[in-house]
Structures are given as C-alpha cells and as structure tokens.
C-alpha cells in the first residue's frame, strides 16, 4: 500500500469521525458522547505516530501500522489454534501435548483411525515387537541409584521431574509438582535455585541440584559453604545431590537473578542479599578440572551422610568426558549417577544462539557417554539419567535402549500442570500461572487438583512404558536393547539404534569421538 494514500486515508477518517462526534454532541445525540473517546483517542494516536521518531513503520503509516504489531502479537495463538496440524507444533506437537493432558486428567488416551505420521519419511522411528509378549509390572519399573561408595542409595522411578527452580516456577507450581511426586513416589529435582519451603511442604523426594551460584549452600562471598550444605543436605526429603556443570538449553552460559526478582523470600532461600542482582557464573569456583570435580563430589557425598551424588552436563567435547573417565580410574572416585542433558532441553530463558546452536543432542550424547563408560569399565558403578524432550513411554524406552537407567521430564510435567505451550516462560506473564511470580496469575493453579494430575501423568506414562516393553518382550528396563529400535534414515534405508549409535572404535580399540567418526 502506498504510504501517502494510507496516511491521508487515516487523516480523512479522523476528520470525518471528529466532525460526526462534534455534530452529534451539538445536536444532543447520545451517540456523539459515546464516540467521543474513540474519536479523541484515534486522533491523538495518529498525531503521535506521525511525529514520533522511534518506529519508521508507524511514522509512515500512522495508526494503521499498529495493526501489524497486533497481528504479530497474536500470531502464535492464531497458528496454534487455527493453522497448526496435529503433528506440526514445536517444541511439542498438539498430538504430544494432548496425550499429556489426557494422562494428567486420567481420561481416554486412545486415538482413532490410525497413525498420522508418514512412516516412510526419514526420521520416523519405531520399536520391533515380539510374537510372544510378556507381562511387565509398572510398579517394578524402578532403579536403585547408589554405588559401593554410597551408604544411602535411593530407589528411583524411571520417570522423574527435571530441574526447574522456584523463581522460574511459581510457588503453586512447585507445590503441585512436589505433591505429585509424593503421591506417585518419584523424585522432584529442585533446579539450581535452592530448596524452598514449597519443595518441602508435601514431603516429596528431592534431588537437590547445586549450580555455579551454590544457592542454598553458599557463604557471604558466594563460595560453597560445607557447613551450610551439610545442614541442608540432612533433610530427609533430600534423596540425591546433583552437581550441575551445564544444561542443554544454554550450555556454558551463566545467568543473572535480577534485583527486581530477588525478593526477601528468594534471597533467604538462595542465601543471598535481597534487592541486588546475583550472578550465576558459567564456571564453578569450587573446582577447575576433572580431578577437583571428583574430589568435590566425594566431599558432598561425605557431608550428606552418604547420599547418592552425581553430575549433570550437556556434552560439548567428547575428549573432555574421556578425561573425566580416566580421572575416575586414577582417583577411584565414582559418581553414583550422571545426568545427560540433550541440547534440545528447555529453559525459561536463553539466548537464541545457545538454544539452537550449542551442545550435543540427547541421543548422540547419551550413546557417547554410555559407550565411553563401558569402554573404561565404569558403567557398572554409575547410573545414567537422560533429559531432553521426554514426555511419552516411547521416549523413555528409546533412552533406555541407548543405555540410560532412568529419565527426567520438565516440560511434560509442566504440561500436566496445565501449561499450554504459550512460549511466554521468560515474560513473567505465563497465562496459566506456572512460570510466573505474579500472584494474580499463579493463584489460578489449584494445588489440590494439579498435584493429582502430575501423579496421574506419571502413573499413566509408566504404565504405557510397561505395555510397550511387554509388547517388545523386554521383562525389565535393563533388557531394552538398541537392536529393537529402528529409524528410517532415507525413504528406502532403515537402521537400528545399535547401528546408528553403537560404539565406534579406532584400529587401536579406543573410542572415536563424534567429530572423528566421519573420517574413519
């Protein structure tokens, strides 16, 4: 549209509306008074847009240009509600979201009329079933985490709540998640924001995550405090300790708690001064290499009274993980578990470049970690937990096939709480009150109802996993094999997980790094 024509059209509309209102008021018509705010508002808006110097679009198309911003603002909702197919949505499709909602509400979980996925498109995955299915008890799908160096092992579910801090989530969301964990007997990871009263109120099992800010276990200088850690780790609800090296959504990136969000309550939980910005650095200050890290893990194990300790990472460089393996051999210190977080993992807020372009995706990272541990004969000491876009029983079975012992889900649990994938986690205005600190929004989360939905989602998903395993003939999680999982890599080429992710060795028998495989 020609900007001059559009501009003069708006001027003419304003003039006609102003004259109409003036005549109506002069003649005593009620409509004149009703239209007065509209006429005055449109005229002021048009003049403001024409003479402001910030937006070229509004200067050239006064008032009319604002329609573009309005349509852009509602574009996600329009796409999700009217144009998106059942299999198109990102990061989770409508079909995926629907199954979580159905399981959380404990209603019909079946689909009609057949598969929607194109089974001949590259990327399609399936499991090979057996002609002789077996019965798998869902309640038996648990794993003991804690090696010979641990005196208080924890018997974990195969599906647990992934790391999400209080502060990123609302208090009602945390209460609901922990209440669901308590009802369903699975674990709730605190995230690196520390242990809040809302994590403890319902008595659900906790995995206490320690990040670079050492929130909840730091001294006044921001360094790790053994005494503060020991006191907090003694809580009966704390079942495991997870040292966070990096996370999938923003590996190698620190964070800042803005002063505005650092309320007295948050400050007390995190052991920081209220009302000031608090930095979570990219790197830890308690250690600087793999040997010091293992010593730090051993220190936390002793201070916690022998509870399972492990570390979480999004894999960046495979040779660095190999050095961690050799350090385990040299020191004789073995973590009880390692959490592998894929680059596809979610977060409340992260720079685009980190979210889209940094870190190794889950399946590649998981296979590399498991193959490396087996090569150095370390897997027998260490359980592996997998995290990254895991919401269904099939998702869990895929990571089990690659060597994981248990799984985390964050966004699946958020969907069970009522998350609608509005993609506003970083705005503070989550429409369903899950990722916000606005009381007018988070009060909408009915804890008594939502904790039941979280427990329902977990129970039904584990039941679905048990049925899938039974259909494939796997009597236990340890027996899920990569040879039974398949992916179509081209329209005519099919490969099993064993072929895609199996160990690649050099002529000398050493494991090849992902970047070396293409050259061998």
Question: What report would you give on this structure?
Answer:
With 520 residues, the protein is an alpha/beta fold. The protein has 20 helices and 15 strands. The protein has helices at residues 3-26, 30-51, 56-60, 66-73, 75-83, 94-105, 171-184, 197-200, 226-233, 264-270, 290-303, 318-331, 352-357, 362-375, 393-401, 411-417, 439-442, 447-472, 497-501, 514-517, and strands at 125-127, 142-145, 154-157, 159-161, 188-189, 206-210, 238-244, 255-257, 278-280, 309-313, 337-341, 383-387, 406-409, 485-488, 494-496. Strands 4-13-12-11-10-7-6-5 form an eight-stranded parallel beta sheet. Strands 1-14-15 form a three-stranded antiparallel beta sheet. The chain has a two-stranded antiparallel sheet with strand order 2-3. β12 (383-387), α15 (393-401) and β13 (406-409) form a beta-alpha-beta unit. α7 packs across α18. The radius of gyration is 27 Å and the shape is globular. It starts with a helix and ends with a helix. The mean pLDDT is 90.
Strand content: 5-15%
**N- and C-termini, Cα separation:** 58 Å
Query: What share of the residues lie within helices?
Result: 40-55%
Number of helices: 20
What is the residue-averaged pLDDT?
90
Rg measurement, Å: 27 Å
């Amino acid at each position: 549209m020609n900007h001059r024509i559009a501009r003069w059209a708006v001027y003419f509309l304003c003039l006609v509306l102003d004259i109409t209102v003036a005549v109506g008021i002069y003649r005593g018509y009620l409509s004149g008074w009703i239209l007065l705010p509209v006429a005055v508002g449109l005229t002021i808006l048009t003049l403001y847009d024409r003479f402001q110097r910030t937006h070229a679009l509004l200067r050239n198309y006064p008032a009319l240009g604002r329609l573009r911003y309005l349509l852009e603002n509602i574009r996600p909702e329009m796409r999700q509600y009217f144009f998106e197919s059942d299999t198109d949505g990102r990061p989770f499709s409508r079909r995926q979201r629907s199954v979580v909602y159905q399981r959380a509400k404990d209603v019909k979980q079946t689909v009609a009329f057949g598969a929607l996925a194109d089974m001949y498109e590259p990327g399609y995955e399936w499991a090979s079933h057996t002609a002789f299915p077996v019965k798998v008890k869902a309640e038996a799908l648990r794993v003991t985490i804690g090696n010979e160096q641990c005196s208080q092992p924890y018997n974990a579910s195969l599906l647990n709540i992934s790391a999400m801090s209080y502060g990123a989530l609302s208090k009602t969301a945390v209460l609901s998640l922990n209440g669901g964990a308590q009802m369903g007997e699975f674990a709730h990871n605190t995230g690196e924001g520390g242990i809040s009263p809302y994590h403890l109120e319902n008595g659900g099992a906790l995995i206490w995550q320690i990040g670079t800010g050492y929130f909840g276990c730091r001294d006044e200088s921001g360094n790790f405090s053994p005494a503060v850690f020991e006191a907090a780790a003694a809580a009966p609800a704390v079942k495991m300790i997870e040292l966070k090296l990096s996370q999938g959504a923003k590996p190698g990136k620190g964070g800042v708690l803005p002063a505005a969000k650092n309320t007295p309550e948050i400050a007390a939980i995190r052991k920081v001064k209220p009302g000031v910005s608090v930095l979570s650095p990219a790197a830890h200050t308690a250690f600087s290499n793999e040997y010091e890290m293992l010593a730090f893990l051993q220190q936390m194990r002793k201070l916690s009274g022998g509870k399972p300790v492990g570390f979480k990472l999004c894999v960046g460089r495979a040779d660095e993980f190999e050095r961690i393996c050799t350090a385990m051999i040299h020191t004789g210190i073995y973590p009880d578990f390692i959490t592998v977080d894929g680059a596809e993992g979610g977060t409340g807020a992260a720079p685009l470049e980190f979210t889209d372009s940094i870190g190794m995706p889950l399946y590649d990272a998981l296979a590399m970690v498991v193959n490396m541990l087996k090569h150095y004969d370390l897997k027998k000491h260490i359980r592996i937990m997998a995290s990254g876009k895991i919401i269904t029983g099939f998702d869990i079975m895929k990571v089990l096939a690659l060597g994981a012992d248990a799984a985390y889900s964050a966004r699946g649990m958020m969907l069970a709480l009522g998350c609608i994938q509005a993609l506003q986690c970083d705005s503070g205005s989550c429409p369903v009150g899950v990722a916000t600190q606005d009381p007018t929004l988070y009060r909408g989360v009915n804890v008594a109802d939502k904790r039941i939905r979280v427990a329902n989602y977990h129970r039904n998903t584990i039941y679905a996993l048990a049925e899938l395993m039974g259909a494939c003939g796997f009597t236990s999680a340890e027996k899920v094999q990569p040879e039974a999982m398949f992916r179509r890599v081209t329209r005519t080429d099919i490969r099993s997980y064993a072929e895609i992710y199996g160990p690649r060795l050099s002529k000398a028998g050493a494991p090849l790094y992902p970047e070396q495989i293409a050259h061998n």
